[in-house]
Amino acid sequence: MIEGDRAPEFCLPNQDNQTVCLRQFAEKWTVLYFYPKDMTSGCTKEACEFTDLRKEFDKLDAIIIGISPDSPERHRRFKETTAQ
């Protein structure tokens, strides 16, 4: 896939172990980014860069979704760590 391609439909658990499906955001611009592991320096930097730009994405009514193979529990710890 390349930038601008439509992503295939998927459903995955979020940090609260609730199922989130891409179709929930069909009416919004959606930014998907993939990273290999929560709580690593490179992935933390990437997540923080998206957080820093959140107001710009909000102006576009865009949703940001980060995806990694980690567990919902690890995602929750990562979110709590990067929110500080």
Explained architecture:
The chain has one domain (11-82): Glutaredoxin. It is 35% helix and 21% strand. The protein contains 3 helices and 4 strands. The strands form 2 sheets. It has a two-stranded antiparallel sheet. A hairpin with a 5-residue loop joins strand 1 and strand 2. The longest helix has 12 residues, at 41-52. It is globular.
Describe the structure using short key phrases:
Glutaredoxin, about 35% helix, alpha+beta, globular, single chain
In CATH, the homologous superfamily goes by the name Glutaredoxin
CATH architecture: 3-Layer(aba) Sandwich
Oligomer: single chain
Strand-pairing-aware structural class: alpha+beta
Q: For the terminal residues, how far apart are their CA atoms?
A: 33 Å
Main sheet overview: 2 strands, antiparallel
Q: What pattern of helices and strands is seen along the backbone?
A: EEEHHEH
Report the portion of residues in β strands.
Answer: 15-25%
**Total of helices:** 3
Which regions contain 5 or more consecutive residues with pLDDT less than 50?
none
What is the count of β-strands? 4
Strand order of the largest sheet: 1-2
Summarize the model shown.
The protein is of the alpha+beta class. The chain has helices spanning 41-52, 54-59, 72-82; strands at residues 11-13, 19-21, 29-34, 62-67. The strands form 2 sheets. Strands 1-2 form a two-stranded antiparallel ribbon. A two-stranded parallel ribbon has the order 3-4.
